[in-house]
Specification:
It holds the Pfam family TOD1_MUCI70. The chain is an alpha/beta fold. Helices cover about 35% and strands about 10% of the residues. Helix 14 packs antiparallel against helix 17.
Length: about 600
């Protein structure tokens, strides 16, 4: 009898078949062993198995071994089904045949590379899944697209009332503004950033050794050529432009306008809303914000930039200590100022807050002479989020034309007249025209730049960079350079600016006076006291119309009236007679 007559399948290593053939061959060629020992051995093995079976049955009811075995078998079957199911999903595992071997490898067979093959196939499966995931088109980014107030909200149908009929007061004045309650304004804060048209990535030029240009510039802002200036207005998806701080490793560190590392760390940790201001040359007195909610006090960053001269004045007059806090303001001392003109130094934090606070989402800039009297969240909701805007600034209360503004600056001696004329003529050569109704819906070419409300997105950051470059290249009067930068950016994109009324700006900030003016009106502040001098408090009118408790707040600052001196003794009130003045007389009323 041969092994072929057994009809056994051949395997890769022939483990069972080869052993069986060897046993048959040994039976045919060698004499059979004595039958008694074989029978004894078989009987002994059977008795041992029977003894083990009786032992299991004996303890199964007590130890519940049977239930444990059933659970183990069930778990193995479940894992087997899952394993086979994965193979049938078409992810690369087709069965359990390994290396063209028989269906199962019996004990005693040579070791195989099963684990290695499974690992390779499984890894390939994971990679294929990842490739399928990455090959799918990414989901489009989510942007903030604005919102509408619910029906019945008083702010939805709010209109400005006519100005009061006061012929004696013809100057600028505040007007009512409809704010939402602080809690509701905070709840409407966008979770996503606004869309930045065209521009997606903005980086800044770094130059350790810049070459002086014959056409303006500075060591702090660099000396961009006219070609570089022209290229910076060609809005593209990715741009690299001058934006101050051209030297040093990071803004505020060996760049000019240097800031201590501890202050820089605090500025980097500001990740939400920042309210910023600056006083250089002790030009103004610090005004403390009022009507600020507890949420804003905890979450909004209030930073005041001062130079060393102002720091010394604050320590002598208002008790500034080593804690660097003065009321709500976190005082940041700036060293190595880039300009000799304090007003030009003030343009650095005013226009480049996105570089000083790289992680902030929104910023509110107010000049040092202003007092904030409305919560920052309410201001952001009213002028940015509700309007779906990323940049808001108030228009000038009186002037709308850049050329008229330039002449007013010359008449007031705000800057060298020849420099103003050169700047205006250069803008005329680039196509700047006087303001007219043809520019609508643009309502003005002249801003009141003491307040800037903005979101830090690439397009708004580019706008303030280019605006700063004009201030650095030409005069420091940013009202003159505003319209040319805005028009050039808007000609390449559909980006717009919310220019709100000046009377609305005067609703949430109260304009004070510079320190040199105040010192002529009042005695110097006592040592150790906080000097806060401002006009009389505003009149606040609140209208509650719905269950939502929407508020219409009107902050009206009352101007200080000048009392004419009395002549001689006490004069009785009565009609005043105006005496005639002869021609050539020096006594002219």
């Amino acid at each position: 009898m041969t092994s072929g007559s057994l009809g056994l399948r051949s395997g890769s290593y022939g483990s069972l078949q080869q052993q069986f053939q060897n046993s048959l061959f040994s039976i045919q060629t060698t004499p059979s062993p004595p039958p008694v020992p074989a029978a004894r051995k078989t009987t002994k093995m059977f008795k041992e198995k029977e003894k083990l079976f009786h032992w299991i049955c004996k303890f199964a009811p007590r130890k519940k071994v049977g239930m444990l075995l059933l659970c183990v078998v069930s778990a193995l079957v479940f894992m087997w089904v899952l394993y086979v199911g994965k193979g049938e999903d078409g992810v690369g595992i087709q069965g359990i045949g390994f290396n063209n071997s028989s269906d199962f490898n019996f004990p005693g067979s040579p070791p195989t590379n099963v684990d290695q093959d499974i690992s390779v196939q499984f890894n390939a499966t994971v990679i294929n899944k990842d490739e399928n995931i990455t090959s799918q088109p990414p989901s489009p980014p989510v942007y903030f697209t604005g919102y509408s107030l619910p029906p019945g909200n008083p702010c939805e149908s709010f209109t400005l009332p006519p100005p009061p009929a006061d012929k004696k007061r013809t100057g600028p004045r505040p007007c009512p503004v409809c704010y939402l309650p602080v809690e509701e304004a905070i709840s409407l804060m966008p979770n996503a950033s606004s869309f930045s048209p065209v521009l997606k990535s903005l980086t800044y030029i770094h130059e350790e050794n810049s070459t002086r240009s014959e056409f303006g510039g500075s060591e702090f802002g660099g000396y961009p050529s006219l070609k570089q200036r022209s290229d910076s207005y060609d809005i593209r998806e990715s741009m690299n432009v001058h934006c101050g701080f051209v030297r040093g490793r990071k803004p505020g560190r060996q760049t000019g306008f240097d800031i201590d590392d501890s202050d820089l760390l605090d500025m980097e940790q500001c990740q939400g809303v920042v309210v910023a201001s600056a006083i250089f040359g002790a030009y103004d007195l610090i005004q403390q914000p009022r009507n600020i909610s507890e949420t804003a006090k905890r979450n909004v960053c209030f930073f005041m930039f001062v130079d060393e001269v102002t720091e010394e004045f604050l320590r002598n007059s208002s008790g500034l200590d080593s804690g660097k806090m003065l009321g709500l303001w976190r005082i940041v001392v700036v060293h190595n100022l880039p300009y000799t003109d304090p007003r030009r130094n003030g343009k650095v934090p005013k226009l480049l807050l996105h570089r000083l606070f790289p992680n902030a989402r929104y910023s509110l800039w107010i000049d040092g002479k202003l007092e904030l009297v409305v919560d920052p969240y309410q201001i952001l909701e009213r002028f940015l989020w509700r309007k779906n805007a990323s940049f808001a600034i108030s228009r000038h209360y009186k002037r709308f034309d850049t050329f008229v503004e330039a002449e007013a600056n010359k008449a007031a001696g705000k800057y060298d007249n020849a420099s103003i004329d050169f700047q205006v003529e250069f803008y005329k050569s680039e196509g700047l025209t006087p303001y007219s109704s043809a520019k609508l819906p643009i309502t003005s070419d002249v801003p009141e730049g003491c307040v800037i409300i903005r979101e830090h997105i690439p397009i708004s950051n580019l706008f303030t960079c280019l605006w700063f470059n004009e201030v650095d290249r030409f005069t420091s009067r940013d009202q003159i350079s505003y319209s040319i930068v805005r028009d050039k950016v808007m000609s390449k994109t559909n980006w717009t600016i919310n220019m709100f009324l000046d009377c609305e700006r005067r609703n949430f900030v109260i304009q004070g006076y510079h320190r040199d003016v105040l010192e002529h009106w009042a005695p110097p502040p006592p040592p150790g006291g906080v000097a806060v001098i401002h006009p009389p408090p505003p009149f606040v009118e609140t209208l509650n119309k719905t269950s939502h408790q929407m508020s219409v707040e009107t902050n009206v600052s009352t101007p200080t009236k000048k009392t004419p001196p009395k002549r001689g003794k006490d004069r009785k009130s009565g009609p005043r007679r105006h005496r005639k003045v002869a021609a050539g007389s020096k006594d002219i009323i």
